[in-house]
Amino acid sequence: MVVSGLQIAAAVPCASSSRRVYKTRAAILGVDMKAASQLKLTSSYHISSASARPFIRTFTCTSKKFSKVVTKAMSGTTEEGIASGLPIDLRGKRAFIAGIADDNGYGWAIAKSLAAAGAEILIGTWVPALNIFETSLKRGKFDESRVLPDGSLMNITKVYALDAVYDNLEDVPEDVKTNKRYAGASNWTVQEVAESVRNDFGSIDILVHSLANGPEVSKPLLETSRNGYLAAMSASSYSFVSLLKHFVPIMNPGGASISLTYIASERIIPGYGGGMSSAKSALQSDTRVLAFEAGRRHKIRVNTISAGPLGSRAAKAIGFIDMMIDYSLANAPLQKELLADEVGNAAAFLASPLASAITGTVLYVDNGLHAMGVGVDSLIFQDLNVPKDDGKS
Ligand SMILES: NC(=O)c1ccc[n+]([C@@H]2O[C@H](COP(=O)([O-])OP(=O)(O)OC[C@H]3O[C@@H](n4cnc5c(N)ncnc54)[C@H](O)[C@@H]3O)[C@@H](O)[C@H]2O)c1
Q: How many domains does the chain have?
């Protein structure tokens, strides 16, 4: 008998010295994706399922900075043929994940966790990044990152071109229509993508919004232009409203939607500017209102994950992500690296029937950093006996 769905297991340190070694059954490896520019675009394409031997990777942690408690999605059978634990079972469910253009970000990790739990995966990729993403997929550049806990490769049933700042064709300005980065792609407005998914598959169960953009993100709010502010809101918050609005009619009752937010929506994070903090605040507020509206009318749950810092392509473009990762390691209750998989697994839980009463929430997956009121690495606290992970326990 095959155990259904996705089970969670924590990898145990192989050695209990300050040099820790962890073994995991699968690992996401970064692939350096260059910005997609001046590339000819193609329409949607399919990649077929394949299987591979389990990919084994050993992490050798030489400093606390790389200390990991690896929590992995596991799926498989037990020796007795009895399902152990409490599985996340998404077999028979179909997910549309908007905002994947490489294998480094949260969207990819969420796709993998949903796939490990048995969901069928559809992806929406930003039009200017589509060609390079598809080419990389076809050439097998992501194959190592596609390995699931059971050794098979994540199957992406279809990739759709998407630009989530345009609801329909009438919204698209002439200069975008004629832009060479959009040439060759079609049906990429939100409404058209929802229609294409309906025509191709009829319905979905899970909608994931893992995208954001703020052209003036590096400017303080006081120096942000109206256009920059509104562009951040359009790409990072209204894009979720629009996606849900257009996909809700094809979402099965009991379905779930998830977006990604950041603590800068609630607390001051200098450097996260250009209206991006405002956009994330709107996203969190909208999560509550949409939970009510989509819950009452369509029995759809709406939640958002407030994720800790990850060195994704989008985050690197902001310019201070390494600083935020270091700050988290120094100050969060859990002093370990945050893995994209941990956000992926939280998303799989939220999307699953196990979370059937959870809606309208912000779920923090950030090693607990959001709960801190002070930064304990401040010199002010040097004489305070602050417990630290010295790597011994
Ligand atoms: N990386 C972090 O530290 C962090 C922390 C908290 C929250 N988040 C959030 O996680 C989500 C995913 O970001 P990520 O950091 O994983 O980076 P990422 O680069 O993997 O994902 C961002 C995606 O948004 C896409 N995108 C941008 N504009 C788009 C548009 N108009 N239409 C469609 N797609 C568009 C990009 O192509 C990219 O694939 C974002 O909402 C981000 O704000 C990230």
A: 1
CA distances from 132 to 126, 138, 335 (A): 11, 10, 36
Domain extent, residue 355, equals 94-372
Is 237 designated active site? yes
Q: Tokens standing for 1?
A: 């008998």
**Catalytic residue from among 237, 265, 278, 328:** 237
DSSP symbols for 187-238 = S-SHHHHHHHHHHHHS-EEEEEE-----TTTTS-GGG--HHHHHHHHIIIII
For residue 263, tell me if it sits in a domain: yes
Residues of the chain with pLDDT under 70: 1-83, 392-393
Q: Is 196 contained in some domain?
A: yes
Please state, in angstroms and rounded to a whole number, the distance separating the CA atoms of residues 259 and 278: 15
Q: What is the pLDDT of residue 389?
A: 82
Q: Which residues line ligand 1 (CB under 6 A)?
A: 99-101, 104-107, 126, 129, 162-165, 210-213, 235, 260, 262, 307, 309-310, 312-315, 321
Q: Using alpha carbons only, give the angle 93, 296, 107 rounded to the nearest 5 degrees.
A: 40
Residue whose token pair is 């559809």: 122
pLDDT at 83: 59
193 assigned to some structural domain:
yes
Residue 163 identity: D
With respect to residue 39, please indicate whether it lies within any of the assigned structural domains: no
Contact 246, 167 (CB under 8 A): yes
CATH code at 247?
3.40.50.720
Cα(133)–Cα(232) distance, rounded to whole angstroms? Answer: 23
